[in-house]
Amino acid sequence: MLPLSDINPTRRTPILTYILIAINVVVFLIQLSYSPRQLQLTFLNQAIVPLEMTRIGWFAPESLLDIIRAMFFHGGWLHIGSNMLYLWIFGDNIEDRFGRVLYLLLYFLSGFAAAYLQIIIDPQSPIPMVGASGSIAGVLGAYLVLFPGVRVRGLLILGIFTRIAEFPAALVLGFWFVTQLFSGFGSLGAASATGGVAFFAHIGGFVAGVITALLLAWAVPQPPIPQRYDMLYERYGRNR
Question: What's the mean pLDDT when you consider all of the chain?
Fold first, then answer.
């Protein structure tokens, strides 16, 4: 299922989510102006290279900067398109729930957890790791904790047939995480040779998002239940 929207209103405009999306898009547009060789050198010198980080130290200043920079690079149109779609759908409610400071904390903690787990799995890989996927996986994990019953509307693809359907967030995001687990363990031993998707970064980010959301849930109270129901009904009426 490809998520398209959620029926989950917010109390305030998700400015930080919009800013994160804008930064990612601007960086990607700058990447498009690079030649393939320039882009490869940029990824090698400014993104996460597990072999290099293992050599200089995971917490060396340059390693920490590489992780942050890598969160805003992307490997292609599909990579950035899918990441920004998920951030657009699910990020606004996490920002609304926790506030901008705690939301940003969760976002970057998840990104660091994603990077470190992938490095633990494949510390000798010379292949650069780029993308906001780990941070956004953390947003998905937090959403699963906070809004498991919210309906997510998406495109259900069954072979050559497609249809618009709605499912609980717990089912949509739970299925996404299970596919990452299977793909991650299925890819063990192949990453160093072929590159590809850093599935364990997704797993690490998601788990970090779950844990961080559980620890932070007390910090910002949910809207009163009657108010939340009114908001849900209003949003559902506009989107039908």
Answer: 90
